[in-house]
Amino acid sequence: MSSPASPPDVRQRLRALPSVERLAQALARSLAADAAPAGHTPAEQRAAAREAIARLRAELRQQPTTEATPADLLARGLDLARQRLAARPGLIPVINATGVILHTNLGRAPLAKAALDALLAVGQGYSNLEYDLSAGERSRRDRHSEAHWQALLGCEAALVVNNCAAAVWLVLDTLARGQTALISRGELVEIGGGFRIPDIMAKSGVRLCEVGTTNRTRLSDYEAALANAPDVRLIVRVHPSNFRLLGFTERPSLAALAALARQHNLLLFEDVGSGLLADLAGCGLDDEPSPARSLAEGTDVVTFSADKLLGGPQAGIIAGRQALIARIRQNPLLRVLRADKLTYAALEATLRLYRTGQTDAIPVLAMIRQSPADLDRRARRLARSIRRQIPPGSATVTLEAGQSVIGGGCAPHVQLPTTLICLSPRHLAAEELAARLRCGTPPIVARIVRNNVVGDPRTVLPAQERDLVAGIVRSLA
Questions:
Q1: The dihedral sign for the CA sequence 86, 340, 236, 256
Q2: Do the Cβ atoms of 99 and 458 come closer than 8 Å?
Q3: Which helix (H) or strand (E) holds 474?
Q4: What average pLDDT score do residues 306-330 get?
Q5: Position 304 pLDDT exceeds 90
Q6: Is the pLDDT of residue 1 over 50?
């Protein structure tokens, strides 16, 4: 059956659509003008142009009274084509202007230059990953970082796996499979991405025994459970990193749990989450647990992430007593969860910065420590540059006091004062401007607040400032 004829005015507008070739050429020129061209092939560009024109044709049929000149249609088609290219799969760098320091969707912690240099040095050739150069024989890969962990945490031994959820699972599976673990009801948390502590414990073959209540758990609750639960092997403590219980709350100290575990010949295991190693006094993180303190207070084994407050690559760290780490190393599934040479290279380089007192070279820590005065100066300088370069009348650029957050499931109560750059476009909706920024090269991810596109300089790396300004200017052109 043939489709009904379009009204004459719609047909006239459809004839004003650019050809695929013309839009593809305009797209190629636009991409070439980017500060860092993304390297899309001509075939990808033509496909994006073809899809954009199909979208334009559908819009014109659905809204036959819409007024649009050929120039308008070409500009709209260019926006749609860039959006299509940006939506295609492929890992590319972006500028994080959200003010969320550990933005999980944007890859969490950016790496220090020393870590990037180590990645290049190790990744471009061969390495001694599992080779002892002095003995001329095979060795363990985790020996490369163990000395650093011993120095930084005061632990007897440590090993590295691919993330913290894997570290928690491996500890439970090795030390308590088929036995019972005690855990407070207030610590049965979901740690992000749908991973829940009770589910991980069940998958590891550990029987879960909940003690206390959601908001109050006393030492006597653990003692009562020990009298009734069979085969208790572990006391598990989990830091509720992505939420806080306030008000009528209680839980025993780690030292008290350690004493109880020793009294009953049990093991105490704590997942501290973020892996805080640095001194961040004055930044609102005083109640954030550290693995070093956990071990000092009597924990037998501790786990934490390397790509959160530690500021390294994605990895899960297991540290503690030598005999227990040796048992975990013997678990056959460690091979499934082990880290690769690039992770070790970046991690070792990051740990060296801690040991040499160069923690300001770690981007996450530098962002957290930025003073409100420094951020205000950066925001004012960037705003002046944007005002000078955007087309006259295209947008209003103002500054506003705001708050940055840690993110990554860490310290949800901490808000760090900052100065926000607010863009109020005159001829675009805020959503459209935000979409243009996301589809630029490099993409810029910002927030929308009260119909303004808002950027926080805290999470914009200094080397990205020029690209940030250029991207905003292009998006408003």
A1: negative
A2: yes
A3: helix 465-476
A4: 96
A5: yes
A6: no
Kindly state the average pLDDT of the residues 438-463. Answer: 93
Whether the Cβ atoms of residue 60 and residue 14 lie closer than 8 Å to each other: yes
* Residue among 185, 293, 175 nearest 234 (CA): 175
Nearest to 310 by CA among 322, 292, 298, 287: 292
What would be the CATH architecture of the domain defined by 146-339?
3-Layer(aba) Sandwich (3.40)
| In the chain, where the domains are located | 8-87, 95-109+368-476, 146-339
CA atoms in the 13 A half-sphere facing the CB of 52: 31
Say whether 146-339 and 95-109+368-476 share the same fold.
no
Whole-angstrom Cα Rg for the chain = 27
- Provide the CATH topology of domain 95-109+368-476: Aspartate Aminotransferase, domain 1 (3.90.1150)
Structure tokens at 191: 């740690």
Strand partners, 130: none
173 contacts 201 by C-beta, under 8 angstroms: no
Task: Annotate 151-168 with b (16+ C-beta within 10 A) or e (fewer).
Answer: ebbebbbbbbbbbbbbbb
DSSP 77-103: HHHHHHHHHHHSS-----EE-SSEEE-
Buried b (16+ CB within 10 A) or exposed e, 433-446: bbbbbbbbbbbbbb
Query: Would the pLDDT of 71 be above 90?
Result: no
How much is the pTM? 0.84
- How far is it, in rounded angstroms, from Cα 129 to Cα 106? 29
